[in-house]
Amino acid sequence: MVRVKICGITREEDLAAAAAHGADAIGLVVGFPRSPRNLSIERARALRRMAPPFLDVVLVVDGADRDMLIRAVREIRPDAVQVYGEVDPNMLRDLGAGWIIKPVRVEPGIELDYDGFDAILLDSSMGRGLMPDWKLCREMRERSRLPVILAGGLNPQNVLDAIRIVKPYGVDVSSGVELSPGIKDAHMIREFIRRVREAELDEV
């Protein structure tokens, strides 16, 4: 089963739509003030408390500000942390961060042995929504000893092809299911997840 993360949730209704249509996880963005999806720690904590059982909450966070990072993990209490920058995963694990995800730029020959992390997220544009080379992502997935999550430029129209080519552990979508930056569309979320499940049926 390919896991689905709807990232950049900012509203209660978008969280509810992700849960209702079968998402496995949502992403709450903290520490990126230039992003239209950025949340305060307090707002992220409030949304986290609204998440129903069996919907994982991923804290997507900038690790450059160590004090903010520690506070965010302690107060939001996410199921997983997707951390940008050079951060010791053992420090996050000591805070009870759950799964620790390492974002990785899609580049030929890049090192993929990340001790202490539980998964890697492949994204050529590192959060800007640009589509990576899926054949290169497939090659990186085959080299990785960790589960691989595919991100960048995914939408309901292309996610089926992406899964068929890369065969990732999970897929991560944000702008590809939005009406405008930070505002999700429930119908696009439903269609995105439907297409992911269609890809799974193809493999049976």
How would you portray this structure in words?
With 204 residues, the protein is of the alpha/beta class. The chain has helices at 12-20, 41-50, 66-76, 89-94, 134-143, 159-166, 186-203; strands spanning 3-6, 25-30, 38-39, 56-62, 80-84, 99-104, 119-122, 148-151, 170-173, 178-180, 183-184. It has a single domain (3-203), classed as Aldolase class I (TIM Barrel, Alpha-Beta Barrel). Helices cover 35% and strands 23% of the residues. The radius of gyration is 16 Å and the shape is globular. An eight-stranded parallel β-barrel has the order 1-2-4-5-6-7-8-9, surrounded by five helices.
Question: How would you summarize this macromolecular structure in one to three sentences?
Answer:
With 204 residues, the protein is of the alpha/beta class. It has helices spanning 12-20, 41-50, 66-76, 89-94, 134-143, 159-166, 186-203, and strands at residues 3-6, 25-30, 38-39, 56-62, 80-84, 99-104, 119-122, 148-151, 170-173, 178-180, 183-184. The termini are close together.
Strand content: 15-25%
The number of domains is 1
Query: What would you report as the Rg, rounded to the nearest angstrom?
Result: 16 Å
Q: Give the helix/strand class.
A: alpha/beta
Q: Tell how many strands the DSSP assignment holds.
A: 11
SSE arrangement, N to C: EHEEHEHEHEEHEHEEEH
Give the full name of the CATH homologous superfamily. Answer: Aldolase class I
CA-based shape: globular
Low-confidence stretches: none
How many angstroms does the end-to-end distance come to?
10 Å
Query: What is the helix fraction of residues, given as a range?
Result: 25-40%
